[in-house]
Hints:
By secondary structure, this protein is mainly α. It has helices at residues 4-21, 29-46, 66-75, 78-96, 102-115, 124-137.
Amino acid sequence: xxxxxxxxxxxxxxxxxxxxxxxxxxxxxxxxxxxxxxxxxxxxxxxxxxxxxxxxxxxxxxxxxxxxxxxxxxxxxxxxxxxxxxxxxxxxxxxxxxxxxxxxxxxxxxxxxxxxxxxxxxxxxxxxxxxxxxxxxx
Length: 138
């Protein structure tokens, strides 16, 4: 007679063997880059001089975390990724006084280049340019 403990152990071993046979889930480099750029946008929008900094785990980042972008990247959904980034851009531009300010103009230009991309492979270069600019602007 098999005890519940023995059955639970067998189930545990089967699940462990199944997981071991599957390739590990890899994080696409775009997931981290998208999350970082979103974080920089939100820092521009919400951080105040002398206030506490916005971190990746803060509630304001819930819709822009790596796992959210990871799902969109795995789906290859370029348009949804662009919409998510546009949401962040709008918040940052509002905080900066619009697209007519010097920083706003450059952000709008770089974001427009990102918005014209049609394939996942082409996202990297404009995303890197946008991220580099935002990092320097911090």
